[in-house]
Amino acid sequence: MAAVVGAVVIVALGVLPTEALIRVFAEGDGAGVTVGGHFAGYAVYAFVVAVASGGWRLSRRALLLTAALAVGLGIVVELLQAPIPYRDAQALDVAVNAAGVALGLAAFSVAVVWRARPPRWRCG
Length: 124
Known about the structure:
Blueprint: H1 2-15, H2 19-26, H3 30-54, H4 60-81, H5 91-116
Helix pairs in contact: 1-3, 1-4, 2-3, 3-4, 3-5, 4-5
């Protein structure tokens, strides 16, 4: 359910007019906020989708499926933006999204390995 909600939020933010919202957070650096938002949003989304598709197990198939779904969503959003007059489709956004997906999947992989470690109890 979280993966679906995440996709809906990403699409909504991708097609709705968000210029005023960006100005609130940007403080003069709208491009930085936009790039950071793309990167962080897709990193979190990829992490959530990886958990949803493979559970807390490392599976090459689940990671590849997650990468394809998340990067594909980024491409679809950019294509949806192309005809909207107040939005613009940019290849750079797709690249930033893909980088965020890579970070999210790396973080997921580290989290899976970390969770699989036996607990280390310290005696004082």
